[in-house]
């Protein structure tokens, strides 16, 4: 699998597969066909089989897919079988909302620290986590095996903060700032622009799509 180039479109669909399979398990469903899974995904059965075959395939002809096994295999592909310690930079409304969402723990993402440069926010507690000053950032990263940083900071601060974090060894960035981060090739950035989604929704509404 490591030698095969997987398209970004397939990778983007994997979390949806994982989410639907978890729901099926909660409903007591033990196996599912590619046709049934395709209806949930709003795709074709052929597309589902192609997606899963990108990673070796997991079904049996005439039987379909074992839901728990397929969920576990996709979890491994997504790296969810390994805990990921995270920090949030920015303790405004969005940062607090993300840090306060306890469902991340169920998916192996553990928010360990929250940081802000506003002294009025330092010392506040979000879901048992005390907001710390930025001056504590390097020490905390060194002591807590942090692998992912979430950024909910103003766009004019995001680039400098990301570069600082990169210098401290962070290579994965979940960026909510209104700027696309550009970092060295060994850094992984997921830019999440909430207004982009609203504008796409507006376009669909305007054009009856």
What is the strand and helix layout of this fold?
Blueprint: H1 8-26, E1 31-32, H2 34-41, H3 45-53, E2 65-66, H4 67-77, E3 84-89, H5 93-99, E4 109-116, E5 125-126, E6 129-133, H6 137-144, E7 148-151, H7 155-167, E8 172-175, E9 188-191, H8 194-206
Parallel strand pairs: 3-4, 3-7, 4-6, 7-8, 8-9
Antiparallel strand pairs: 1-2, 5-6
Classified by CATH, the class of the largest domain is Alpha Beta
Integer-rounded radius of gyration = 20 Å
Shape: globular
Q: What structural category do the secondary elements indicate?
A: alpha/beta
Number of helices: 8
- Order of SSEs: HEHHEHEHEEEHEHEEH
- Give the DSSP E fraction (strand runs of 2 or more residues): 15-25%
The end-to-end span amounts to 37 Å
When the domains are counted, the total is 2
CATH topology label of the largest domain: Rossmann fold
How helix-rich are the residues, as a percent range? 40-55%
**Can you tell me the residue ranges where pLDDT is under 50 for at least 5 consecutive residues?**
none
Mean pLDDT across every amino acid position: 92
* Strands, count: 9
User: What is the CATH homology-level superfamily of the largest domain?
Assistant: NAD(P)-binding Rossmann-like Domain
Reported for the largest beta sheet, the result is:
7 strands, mixed
Explain how this protein is built:
The protein is α/β, with parallel strands linked by helices and 209 residues long. It folds into 2 domains: 8-77, Orthogonal Bundle (Arc Repressor Mutant, subunit A); 84-196, Rossmann fold. It is built from 8 helices and 9 strands. The strands form 2 sheets. It has a 7-stranded mixed sheet with strand order 5-6-4-3-7-8-9, sandwiched between helices. The protein has a two-stranded antiparallel sheet with strand order 1-2.
